[in-house]
Request: fold
Amino acid sequence: MPRSPRIEYEGAIYHLMARGDRREPIVYNDGDREVFVETLGEACQRGRWEVFAWVLMDNHYHLALRTPQPNLVDGMRWFQNAFTRRINTRNGLWGHLFGGRYKSILVEPDGGGDYLTALIDYIHLNPVRAGLVDGVETSLLDYPWSSVAQAYGKSPGKRPVWMAVKEGLDLFQEKDTAKGRRGFVERLDQWAAAEHAEKAGFVQREEQTLQSTLRRGWYWGSESFREKLVERFGGSIAKDRDRELRSSELFKSHDREEAEAILSEAERDFGESLEELRKPKYGDLRRVAVAWALAKRTTIHQSEIAELTGLRTAANVSQRVRRFGQMNEKALSKELRKWRRKYSKFVN
Reply:
């Protein structure tokens, strides 16, 4: 049976989940967990993703995020591949880290049904269901590997810029103040203390549960939300989405547009045509700088970056881009310093 394609559109909200191969660990120590957060941050920067909630457990993770541009597929491919490479390198492993495809469930924005708020709570209560937090002697703030401790429990200047905390707090009628953030965490701890751990965050809507959508669903929302998706993306979406959607405009990659914009910026900033920039010149790092920006801000494959910049191979791109990103500013010309600063900034 052909695999169903991912449904992508501007402003889509997803519940994403992936488990380790054979349910084995995807992280082995706190250093690996920090790599997860760093890699997720890079993926958000590349795709301009906005994260409402995340949690990392030993053998799986959950994300609730919005894609302002229709780029989930490219972004997740980069994220999972990059994370796998980094964990394998750190631990002397090789091969698959994740078991099969990641789950991607479309989520209805909150507007009466409370689907997104239910999802945010469900994700944050994972450590409770795992028996790591009880809400009485231990708070969800004590579990460091979720967006409770790393985002909702922190002031704006101390949390990742890719976290949509203010919007998340608004959904729960809390303000982004010390009092509002404390109220958000206390409500979760009270829920954890009041419920049996295995049921923490268990939610049912219209005979649909978050757990059932992960097993066999493709959306988490009302019937009217489902009807809108079917109307927008084709009548066969629930039965046979593959043929309908792969030939549609839905799968045109936003990354190609972003790459074209970066290449146009390079021609303007460096004062030469792309054809000239591609030509190898001793000591000229401009085409490497362009490759670095493409790698930093898009998820297009490194072999394609090699073709666009004249760097020959994906391996050469990987090596040259890494070195360029690590170079001391004093070793760069003024125009290259300006270029690197521009593309180092996070863009919402």
